[in-house]
């Protein structure tokens, strides 16, 4: 099969389904640190399916991507439970530095790199602070700021009152500003 056609179809499906997939994974995961891995595994599986079965195999790509994500979430949590029984001190809260890479050209953009490093450090500090919050607060922040869902959408998705969602956002935002400054 033509690799270029597979990549084009994959990119088309990815662009069409990514937001919905992220929202689904966020709403179903118990811990926000596993979200990037599950999303990545979902789209790797999609690519393999397109490569093995062909680009015309999927009749409803949106539903298929969610089905893959659901399967990856199930696999993750069933594996996690198995590992917990084997290793009692299994810790899912280890900080993952691999998601914080800067993509800039050092020679051409020295000033921008300096600012990017400062922003990266600040964002890393803010994310570390957010990880001390309960999972519901982390999910709300992820859905509100990353997935750009509205407060009513988040409330419906997480089965919480809108006032609770607003409270999580405003209280935690206030704490972040107080701890990291107004620009944080």
UniProtKB/TrEMBL annotation:
GO terms for molecular function: DNA binding; sigma factor activity. This is RNA polymerase sigma factor. The keyword DNA-binding applies. It comes from Lysinibacillus sphaericus. Residues 92-126 form a coiled coil. Keywords: Coiled coil, DNA-binding, Sigma factor, Transcription, Transcription regulation. Residues 134-171 form the RNA polymerase sigma factor 70 region 4 type domain. Belongs to the sigma-70 factor family. ECF subfamily. Gene3D superfamilies: 1.10.1740.10, Winged helix-like DNA-binding domain superfamily/Winged helix DNA-binding domain (1.10.10.10). The lineage of its organism: Bacteria, Bacillati, Bacillota, Bacilli, Bacillales.
């Amino acid at each position: 099969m033509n690799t270029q056609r597979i990549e084009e179809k994959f990119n088309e499906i990815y662009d069409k389904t990514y937001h919905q997939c992220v929202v689904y994974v966020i709403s179903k995961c118990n811990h926000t640190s596993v979200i990037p891995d599950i999303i990545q595994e979902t789209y790797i599986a999609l690519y393999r399916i397109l490569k093995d079965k062909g680009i015309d195999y999927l009749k409803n790509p949106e539903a298929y991507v969610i089905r893959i994500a659901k399967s990856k979430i199930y696999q993750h949590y069933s594996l996690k439970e198995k590992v917990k029984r084997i290793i009692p001190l299994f810790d899912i809260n280890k900080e993952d530095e691999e998601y914080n890479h800067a993509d800039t050209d050092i020679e051409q953009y020295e000033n921008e790199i300096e600012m990017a490093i400062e922003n990266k450090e600040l964002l890393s500090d803010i994310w570390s602070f957010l990880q001390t919050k309960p999972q519901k607060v982390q999910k709300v922040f992820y859905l509100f700021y990353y997935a750009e869902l509205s407060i009513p959408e988040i409330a419906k998705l997480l089965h919480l009152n809108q006032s609770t969602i607003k409270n999580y956002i405003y209280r935690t935002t206030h704490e972040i500003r107080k701890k990291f400054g107004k620009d944080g």
